[in-house]
Design a protein that fits this description.
502 residues; alpha+beta; ten-stranded mixed β-sheet; two-stranded antiparallel sheet; 15 helices; 17% strand; globular
Length: 502
């Protein structure tokens, strides 16, 4: 009788515990620090726009809810979660934690400044938020990536604050979809391809509809005042072993724009929503990304990117592709649409004011530029602008320009300090080996050994390695020692660099 009672009690406990056990989530000992606005503190003063480029209305509505929502989500998966107001955070605060999440920018330790260079040109220096050697793993949310990362040379730059709610071109085999906390098979739905993709050469061949994954329930394109997400430049993003692209997303830019990606110990979560507006799958992938980043402690970026306005060979290919009547007609259509939209919005705001309604701060700010129509270039002016410094050489012969540039792609030199400045490196052109190939270094060392045009060989070696060796023996020794670790970085000096990761 007693055994029967015990068995019944055990069965009852299992019936009660079963559903509870099913609801339990896997937990991780990863220690997480969340940095955002603490609703227990007063809201920051809103001047031109709210933090995160949110609308003032949306920022005020989310202020008391956003940090608690992140704390609640993270606490379901991680045994230690702490929050701190972004205005109070200092680098030392992250030391006890495995991963720090920055939802909004912290207090700058150095302000941004504009200076005049030696040649009279203006030089902008971004504000500093982090030390150059900050080595703790980080998750940046939306625009925080560029705001805090630009000064220290992160590739997580501000291509466009125009990321909506869906991701596409996902690497679903990436670790953040496999775990370690939740395995996620993203629910994909075919949707209309963003129009912006087709304005780039890289969009050729992309179908009119593509599979997409919904990361958050609403986006700013839904017209509900949501915080806007950030995409970074995909050009040469994965050229170095310290970076990986995981996903693009719905935005106004090319198919390679980065919505989810990593550079060293920094991760871009370009989507903007708080957990209250994330999809269930989005929440799971987010916490996976947090756990995933722990392994990158002290894995600081090898190849830094300090000039987001430098040209890359990806840009040059776009320029070559744009030198056609087809792309010119696309440009004309875009400009007409832009002008019509401006006129329409200007009339809407004027009508609103005329009826005595108060404009929002964002609408007031838009009055500075709205209503002005942009002049549409003629074909000749458009082509000359596209060709840049090569316009004098080719005039209006677009076909000759394209043929010449394609034949010399291996000799393109993009000025890492310039504003989309590129040229043909005549030294490399003379040698006849691509400047992205290790064979160029081999050829130069061989020239030094033979005493054949040694000045040319030495010039090229120094330009494309940053080393200052002199003799053929020293160059041969350096190349032999580092050959298997060398990679070419356009964005960090347009040179070969050494992979310092083991």
């Amino acid at each position: 009788m007693m055994n029967r009672i015990l068995n019944l009690m055990m069965l009852a406990l299992l019936l009660i515990a079963g559903p509870l056990m099913a609801q339990q989530r896997p937990t991780s000992p990863v220690k997480v620090l969340f940095v955002g606005y603490d609703p227990a503190k007063p809201m920051p003063e809103i001047k031109r726009s709210a933090p995160g480029m949110m609308s003032e209305k949306e920022f005020k509505a989310e202020y008391p809810l956003r940090m608690p929502a992140f704390k609640a989500l993270l606490s379901q998966y991680f045994t230690e979660v702490k929050t701190i107001d972004c205005r109070d955070w200092k680098p030392v605060d992250s030391e006890p934690y495995d991963v720090t999440i920055f939802d909004f920018a912290t207090t700058a330790v150095e302000p941004a400044k504009m200076e005049k260079g030696a040649n009279g040109e203006s030089k902008f220096t971004a504000a500093r938020y982090l030390p150059d050697n900050f080595s703790k793993p980080v998750i940046f949310i939306a625009s925080t990536a560029d705001e805090m990362g630009r000064r220290i040379g992160l590739k997580l730059d501000w291509l466009c604050l125009c990321l909506d709610a869906d991701a596409h071109h996902l690497n679903t085999n990436h670790a953040i979809f496999k775990g370690p906390l939740e395995k996620v098979m993203p629910t994909m739905e075919n949707k209309k391809t963003p129009d912006g993709i087709f304005h780039y050469a890289s969009g050729a061949g992309v179908p009119k509809e593509i599979p997409m994954w919904r990361v958050q329930k609403t986006g700013y394109l839904d017209g509900k005042g949501s915080r806007i997400g950030l995409v970074s430049r995909g050009n040469r993003f994965t050229e170095s072993p310290d970076a990986e692209m995981i996903s693009s997303g719905v935005c106004a830019k090319d198919v390679g724009a980065v919505a989810l990606g990593r550079h060293g110990n920094f991760f871009l979560w370009g989507f903007s929503a708080s957990p209250t507006d994330m999809t269930d799958e989005g929440k799971k992938v987010f916490v996976n990304a947090v756990a995933y980043m722990k392994q990158f402690n002290s894995k600081t970026p090898i190849a830094r990117k300090y000039n987001d306005r430098m040209a890359t060979t990806d840009d040059v290919r776009e320029i070559i592709a744009a030198a056609t009547k087809t792309h010119y007609n696309d440009y004309v259509a875009q400009m007409k649409s832009f002008n019509e939209g401006n006129v329409k919005e200007s009339k809407r705001l004027a009508d609103k004011k005329a009826t005595g309604q108060t404009l929002t701060p964002e609408e007031e700010a838009s009055l500075l530029y709205i209503g002005n129509t942009q002049e549409i270039d003629s074909w000749e002016t458009y082509l000359k602008r596209s060709m840049g410094k090569f316009a004098d050489k080719f005039g209006t012969d677009a076909e000759a320009f394209q043929k010449y540039m394609k034949a010399n792609m291996g000799y393109i030199y993009c000025n890492p300090d310039g504003f989309y400045d590129y040229s043909i490196d005549e030294d490399v052109q003379k040698i006849g080996v691509s400047n992205h190939s290790l064979k160029l270094l081999d050829a130069c060392v061989a020239m030094l050994k033979k005493g054949k045009e040694s000045d040319l060989a030495l010039r090229v070696l120094k330009r494309y390695t940053g080393e200052n060796l002199i003799t053929a023996k020293d160059w041969a020794s350096w190349l032999s020692k580092n050959r298997n670790k060398l990679f070419f970085s356009e964005t960090n000096g347009y040179r070969f660099m050494i992979n310092t990761y083991s």
